[in-house]
Amino acid sequence: MFKEIKLWMILAIIGAMGIAIITSHTIAYRTGVNVTRAEILKRSVIVLRQRGIIDAELQNSTDADLCRALGGLPNNGKCE
User: Fold this and answer.
1) Boundaries of domain holding 25
2) Quick check: is 79 in a domain?
3) What's phi and psi for 74, nearest 5 deg?
4) Global model pTM greater than 0.70
5) What is the count of structural domains for the chain?
6) Three-class SS of residue 73?
7) Cα separation, 19 vs 23, whole angstroms
8) What is the largest CA-CA distance in the chain?
9) pLDDT score of 73
């Protein structure tokens, strides 16, 4: 009788440990996914802000300014 109780106790402990391991793995995985998503969103915001600055600079530039910025030399309305 005590052997049966001992066996059931061992099996219950093993089962509880298994559930604990699976639960902790799932929580860690979801946390990692959420952290990765947050980093991607932060990077996207930075890129969009930089794009806005670049767009503003380009809209305020003349053709000759754009030509020089690209490494060319304006010559009679053409960029060479």
Assistant:
1) 2-71
2) no
3) -70, 135
4) no
5) 1
6) coil
7) 6
8) 104
9) 77
Ramachandran category for residue 66: left, alpha or beta (phi over 0 → left; psi -120 to 50 → alpha): alpha
- The token duo for 56 is 């503003």
| Residue labelled with tokens 């959420």 | 34
Beta-ladder partners of 75: 78
Judge whether 57 lies within some domain: yes
* Helix spans in the chain (H): 2-59, 63-69
Structure tokens at 55: 């767009």
Q: pLDDT by residue for the chain (80 residues), tens digit each?
A: 667 778 889 999 999 999 999 999 999 999 999 999 999 999 999 999 999 888 888 888 887 888 887 788 777 777 77
The letter for the amino acid at 31 is T
